[in-house]
Amino acid sequence: MKTRIGVFFGGRSTEHEISVISASQAMHAINREKYEVIPVYITKQGRWYTGEALLDVANYRNLPELLKKCTEVYMRPTYGDYNLYGAKKPLLGGNPVIAHLDVVIPVLHGSNGEDGIFEGVLDTIGIPYAGCNVLASANGMDKITMKMILGACGVPVVPYVWFTDKQWFAQRDALIEEIEKKIGYPVIVKPANLGSSVGIGRAADRQQLIAKVDEAEKYS
Fold it and tell me: Judging by beta carbons within 10 Å of its beta carbon (0-12, 13-18, 19+), is residue 46 exposed, middle or buried?
């Protein structure tokens, strides 16, 4: 019997579309002679779907039509239950088992997927999965805590300044002066807890710095 791999992708993240592309590439790279691939697409609203139509990336151009061809599913937060259940109950009986998973490959980018949240769900169920655990995912995703950990362990990191959105609005001038003194231009501005593809900008002067931080704080 083939090992059944649940590939989870999409998700409630600004990097949703990037996740779809990554998952498509990953699923097509899996050896189908050894493994059965079960795609699980998570919408931007957090609903789960599975179905063969999810394997063709061209289908995502018309998402409403794509989801009509798929089955909405969920997993129970019960340890040892690796089943995907149908979200719609039949007239008689309980929720049907749509598929059984043996292992999960998360291909979720950004928040609510790559930051330890989804890994916590999988740990609650107890199903094996690829990638980092909750703690490593959370710290690896957060650029602030990661730099702190590396620095505490004696690993060199480039100079940086971090602050919250509330601090930016209340202490903007002081923070700008700290950035200019500690780093100088040009600087790279990043949301603290996203990947490296959304909300990132390069600032060559004070005016650009303000604009890039205002943009980045929308995502973090």
Answer: exposed
Radius of gyration of the chain (CA): 21
User: How far is residue 190 from each of residues 62, 116, 174, measured CA to CA in Å?
Assistant: 32, 20, 19
Mention every residue, 6+ apart, whose C-beta is less than 8 A from residue 35.
2, 3, 4, 5
pLDDT tens-digit profile, the chain (220 residues)? 899 999 999 999 888 999 999 999 999 999 999 999 999 999 999 999 999 999 999 999 999 999 999 999 999 999 999 999 999 877 666 779 999 999 999 999 888 888 899 999 999 999 999 999 999 999 998 999 999 999 999 999 999 999 999 999 999 999 999 999 999 999 999 998 877 777 899 999 999 999 999 999 888 7
Beta bridge partners of 6: 38, 104
The C-alpha atoms of residue 192 and residue 141 are separated, in whole angstroms, by 8
CA–CA dist 110, 130 (Å, integer)? 16
Stated pTM of the model: 0.85
Instruction: Mention every residue, 6+ apart, whose C-beta is less than 8 A from residue 95.
Output: 85, 86, 87, 89
Q: How far does the chain reach from its first CA to its final CA, in angstroms?
A: 44
User: Residue 143 in contact with residue 45, Cβ under 8 Å?
Assistant: no
Given a contact cutoff of 8 angstroms between Cβ atoms, the answer to whether 207 and 172 are in contact is: no
